[in-house]
Amino acid sequence: MGEMVFRQVDLSTEEVDALEARYVPLTEAVRELVAATILSNADDDVVAEALAAVREVTAKLSASVETDHSGVNYNGAGRSWNWGNAGSGERNAIAPPIDLKTNPDGSTYADLVLGAAYEGPPGHVHGGVSALLLDHLMGVTASQMSRPTFTGTLTLRYRNPLPLGPIRVEGRVAREEGRKVFVEASITGSDGIALEADGVFITPTWSPSLEATQN
Ligand SMILES: CCCCC/C=C\C/C=C\C/C=C\C/C=C\CCCC(=O)SCCNC(=O)CCNC(=O)[C@H](O)C(C)(C)COP(=O)(O)OP(=O)(O)OC[C@H]1O[C@@H](n2cnc3c(N)ncnc32)[C@H](O)[C@@H]1OP(=O)(O)O
């Protein structure tokens, strides 16, 4: 298997928070750009102008790029960050805008609004996006932020179409057997419950290799 490194980085929590604060507004603006690109009725001139402007700003940001993935990082205080995570990356405009909360009993939930960029059936959420949200939330629920867990089996029941708009995703650990964590979850939309899911998340025998770095 390819090497999988959870990287310890020598940054204070304040420095990580400052980096996040620098980029989160940009990420949100890029999400708005994605929606505007889908929905715009602009004429040729305006689209050409937008194309040139986007290329220019992308070149500026790309000038300081050093790696091809941002990885899973953590510092000595246990603050972890995963800017590019496809399910939740704070700097990933492609990720759904999920802000996951953990209850005192370890169950989790997230309230979010899915717009035009997440459409599948007309006016409704793409089934793969629902699966992404559930995989992510259920993985975090299984990990309890203290151990790596990998999706082993994820079973989804699409009970009703999920309208675009406000949704709630929730999950909880049902039981554990050795390295297997059984998680149950659901997605509720404006018409009520749309999906139910259960999954087996597995803590691998191998420990992720840790690599201290200076950056
Ligand atoms: C140290 C620093 C850590 C720092 C970080 C700390 C914490 C992390 C914090 C936060 C984490 C945050 C977020 C998590 C975010 C997102 C979650 C997204 C999750 C994903 O998106 S993740 C990517 C997709 N995922 C994969 O990329 C998995 C590929 N796969 C494998 O890597 C292996 O396949 C593996 C490991 C799954 C199993 O391998 P293995 O060798 O350990 O398994 P083994 O054969 O020993 O079986 C042991 C027992 O599990 C049963 N079992 C085996 N496989 C099963 C399966 N598939 N389904 C159901 N049950 C299964 C057997 O039946 C047996 O059960 P029994 O003991 O009862 O017989």
Automatic annotation (TrEMBL):
Signal peptide span: none
Superkingdom, taxonomy of origin: Bacteria
Keywords: Apoptosis, Cell membrane, Cell projection, Cytoplasm, Fatty acid metabolism, Hydrolase, Lipid metabolism, Membrane, Transit peptide
EC number, as in UniProt: 3.1.2.2
Cellular localisation: Cell projection, Ruffle membrane; Cytoplasm; Membrane
UniProt cross-references to InterPro entries, sorted A to Z: HotDog_dom_sf (IPR029069), THEM4/THEM5_acyl-CoA_thioest (IPR052365), Thioestr_dom (IPR006683)
Residues in Thioesterase domain copies: 123-191
Any one GO molecular function term: hydrolase activity
GO cellular component: cytoplasm; membrane
Its membrane topology: Peripheral membrane protein
GO BP annotation list: fatty acid metabolic process
Pfam families named in the record: 4HBT
Family as reported in the entry's similarity comment: Belongs to the THEM4/THEM5 thioesterase family.
Name under which the protein is recorded: Acyl-coenzyme A thioesterase THEM4
